[in-house]
Design brief:
Oligomer: single chain
Number of domains: 1
Number of helices: 1
CATH topology: Conserved Hypothetical Protein Mth637, Chain: A
Strand content: 35-45%
CATH architecture: 2-Layer Sandwich
Number of strands: 5
Radius of gyration: 11 Å
Order of helices and strands: EEEHEE
Helix content: 10-25%
CATH class: Alpha Beta
């Protein structure tokens, strides 16, 4: 499954919410330095979909706020 997300790094709160169009808005406290924000996004998405972190990967937008994530179904 491919999921479209918008990431807001360096936020005061951590949160994941689904938007009307089916995409997700993800707020993480980590700054986008040395891929820390990307790692936090993968962790949040894995927890939300109840899969392992190894089952989630960024397929497009690694350096952008708008990303496409692949989630492997079990």
């Amino acid at each position: 499954m491919i999921v479209k997300v918008k990431v807001l790094p360096n936020s005061s709160e951590e949160k994941i919410e689904q938007r009307r169009d089916g995409s997700f808005l993800i707020k993480v406290k980590e700054k986008p330095i040395r891929r820390k924000a990307n790692k936090a996004v993968i962790e949040k998405v894995a927890n939300h979909f109840k899969v392992g972190q190894a089952d989630v990967r960024i397929v497009r937008g690694g350096a952008s706020r708008h990303k496409f994530l692949e989630i492997k179904d079990k």
